[in-house]
């Protein structure tokens, strides 16, 4: 495993712990600058890895990239996804009602306003927004191939409740959130019809997927992320436990499921027409 990968996982697990960088550095007996250097891929001793693992409450092997990584906070999970996406050449996903990497600035704006109404921890909000901004920018620069399957039932709820479905917000903001949701689904229909190179969508018309998952294929390996966290949820939410792994048995099993669902899903003109039908039925007027 490369030192940069150990550093990436160290940062993700630090965010998962909820501890500040200076707090971890103090307990470890190093400077905060030294901790940041570890996160950037500087050489780290095995005894330091052991002590970090104890502090972060993970196994040393997991910190070294061997085994399954578990995350109970959206912040740490999406940071880990960001790291893997930056090296991925292909992304296959059973996703939220949208594919975040190609959403509009309006999506980010309405979500930021909804989160600000609910979450008092400004630093948490800033960290969350920085991660998502970095994910979008990385996609813009690298343009990995992306195949996304969307559940029809989740799209219906998205149109009825709007961006930030699980976030408590004022009636006025909820109305705006529904308008943005309708705009995003309309954009996906347009993207399906435009058929841009390297970007494909399909619609799971008769399937309510039980698991959102992402397969990210890089030059050296494929990573699987199983995700209970929607990209439009509050960073303070605690709704489940996600996992990230490169274990071949997990990756291959999910790849087989994704291939079957892709073959059975609604694509092209039929998918675009179905999305516009859902807009007519469920979007705010």
Q: How many beta-strand segments?
A: 7
Spatial strand sequence of the major β-sheet? 1-7-6-5-2-3-4
% residues in beta strands: 5-15%
Q: What is the terminal-to-terminal distance?
A: 53 Å
Count of alpha and pi helical runs: 12
Helix content: 55-70%
- Gyration radius, in Å: 20 Å
CATH topology annotation of the largest domain:
Endonuclease, Chain A
What's the CATH superfamily of the largest domain, by name?
Endonuclease Chain A
SS-derived structural category: alpha/beta
Poorly predicted segments: none
Organism: Acetobacter aceti
Protein name: XRE family transcriptional regulator
Pfam families: HTH_31 (PF13560)
GO molecular function, one term: DNA binding
Can you tell me about this structure?
The chain is of the alpha/beta class. It folds into two domains: 3-63, 434 Repressor (Amino-terminal Domain); 69-282, Endonuclease Chain A (Endonuclease, Chain A, 2-Layer Sandwich). It has helices at residues 3-17, 21-28, 32-39, 46-56, 60-63, 74-85, 105-118, 122-142, 152-161, 171-194, 248-264, 268-282, and strands at residues 69-71, 88-95, 145-151, 199-204, 212-218, 222-227, 242-245. The protein has a seven-stranded mixed β-sheet with strand order 1-7-6-5-2-3-4, sandwiched between helices. α6 runs parallel beside α8. The model has no long low-confidence stretch (mean pLDDT 91).
